C-alpha cells in the first residue's frame, strides 16, 4: 500500500460566522441578510482537513479557546482524521472569522484570540511533531514568531516547508530564504514583491489567481496553469484547498507543475459548496473530477 505523506500544519483554528447576503451594507446602513451559518474554519484548520481528506497523515499544531467553539472545533478536527495532539485549549476565546458572502465576493474579519498563543515557545514545545514530518504547511494567522520557529525546526530536520503568506505581513529575509515554497494570491504577491527582491523569491513563488488558475516560475519564465471551469458557490477556503492539494502532491513526489494542476482541481471542487471546509474533496473525488475533465 502507498505510504501516506506526513504533513504537519501549524496554524489557525477559527469558527467562521457566515452571513449570506445579496447586498453588502454601506457605512451606517443596516440590511436584512439571507442566511447565517457557523462553520469550522481558520486557514490552518482548513488546510489540515483538506490534506486529511486527500489521504495524508495530518498533524495539527495550534490553539483553541476554552469556550464552546474550541471544544466543537477540536472534536470536528478529530472526526476529520486530523491528529490533534499538538492542539492545546487555552483560557479565553477561540479565534473567529466574521464572513460576509455576497453574490460578488466575500469579506472576512478574523479575530485571532487563542491563535495568538501559538508563540515561538509554544511551537518549540511541539518540536517533535514538526521534526517527524515530510512537509510543514503554514499560514500567517498566528504570531510571526511561531511561524519562524516552526520553519527553523523544519529546516533543522530536512522537512519541506510551504508558507501560504495569508493574510500578508512583512516577512524577514531569513524566513523567505528558509521556506521552500511561498503561495501568495495576486494581491499578496504584489505586497511581497515590494519588500523582497526577485532573487530572494526565485524558484519559491507559486501564485494563486482564482478563476485564472495558478502560476509558477521556471528559469525566470512565468508558467500559468488554468483553473478548471466550475459553477462556484463559495470561494471561502479555495486558497486553503489549493495549498493542501499542493502539499499532498509535492510530498508524494510530484513536480511543481503536476502539483499545481492537482491543487487547481482540489481548489475548484472546494468552491462548489457553501462553507470553507464543506467542499474539500477526497482523493477519489479529485481523481474522478480530473478524469471527467480530460
Ligand atoms: O481562508 C479562509 C479562512 O480565512 C476562513 O475559514 C476564515 O476562518 C479565515 O481564517
Quickly describe the structure.
With 294 residues, the protein is α/β, with parallel strands linked by helices. It contains eleven helices and 13 strands. β4, α2 and β5 form a beta-alpha-beta unit.
Fill in the keyword field for this structure:
294 residues; 36% helix; binds alpha-D-ribofuranose; alpha/beta; four-stranded mixed beta sheet; UDP-N-acetylmuramoyl-L-alanine:D-glutamate ligase
Tell me what the structure shows.
This protein is an alpha/beta fold and 294 residues long. It has a single domain, classed as UDP-N-acetylmuramoyl-L-alanine:D-glutamate ligase. 36% of the residues lie in helices and 24% in strands. The strands form 3 sheets. Strands 5-4-1-8-9-10 form a 6-stranded parallel beta sheet, with helices on both faces. The protein has a 4-stranded mixed beta sheet with strand order 3-2-6-7. Strands 11-12-13 form a 3-stranded antiparallel beta sheet. Strand 4 (57-64), helix 2 and strand 5 (83-89) form a beta-alpha-beta unit. Helix 9 packs antiparallel against helix 10. The two termini are 27 Å apart. Bound molecules: alpha-D-ribofuranose. Alpha-D-ribofuranose binds next to strand 2, helix 1, strand 7 and helix 9.
Amino acid at each position: 500500500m502507498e505510504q501516506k505523506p506526513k504533513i504537519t500544519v501549524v496554524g489557525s483554528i477559527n469558527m467562521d460566522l457566515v452571513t449570506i447576503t445579496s447586498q453588502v451594507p454601506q457605512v451606517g446602513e443596516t440590511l436584512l441578510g439571507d442566511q447565517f451559518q457557523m462553520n469550522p474554519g481558520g486557514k490552518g484548520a482548513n488546510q489540515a482537513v483538506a490534506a486529511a481528506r486527500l489521504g495524508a497523515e495530518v498533524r495539527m499544531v495550534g490553539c483553541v479557546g476554552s469556550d464552546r467553539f474550541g471544544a466543537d472545533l477540536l472534536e470536528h478536527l478529530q472526526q476529520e482524521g486530523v491528529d490533534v495532539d499538538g492542539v492545546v485549549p487555552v483560557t479565553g476565546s477561540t479565534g473567529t472569522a466574521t464572513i460576509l458572502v455576497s453574490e460578488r465576493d466575500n469579506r472576512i474579519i478574523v479575530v485571532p484570540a487563542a491563535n495568538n498563543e501559538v508563540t515561538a515557545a509554544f511551537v518549540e514545545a511541539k518540536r517533535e511533531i514538526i521534526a517527524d514530518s515530510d512537509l510543514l504547511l503554514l499560514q500567517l494567522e498566528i504570531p510571526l514568531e511561531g511561524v519562524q520557529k516552526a520553519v527553523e525546526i523544519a529546516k533543522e530536520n530536512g522537512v519541506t516547508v510551504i508558507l501560504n503568506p495569508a493574510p500578508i505581513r512583512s516577512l524577514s529575509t531569513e524566513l523567505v530564504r528558509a521556506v521552500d515554497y511561498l503561495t501568495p494570491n495576486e494581491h499578496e504577491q504584489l505586497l511581497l514583491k515590494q519588500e523582497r527582491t526577485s532573487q530572494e523569491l526565485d524558484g519559491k513563488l507559486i501564485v494563486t489567481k482564482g478563476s485564472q488558475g495558478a502560476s509558477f516560475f521556471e528559469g525566470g519564465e512565468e508558467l500559468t496553469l488554468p483553473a478548471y471551469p466550475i459553477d462556484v458557490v463559495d470561494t471561502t477556503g479555495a486558497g486553503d484547498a489549493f495549498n493542501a492539494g499542493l502539499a499532498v502532491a509535492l510530498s508524494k513526489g510530484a513536480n511543481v507543475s503536476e502539483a499545481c494542476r492537482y491543487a487547481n482541481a482540489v481548489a475548484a471542487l472546494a468552491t462548489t459548496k457553501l462553507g470553507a471546509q464543506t467542499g474539500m474533496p477526497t482523493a477519489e473525488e479529485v481523481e474522478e473530477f480530473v478524469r471527467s475533465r480530460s
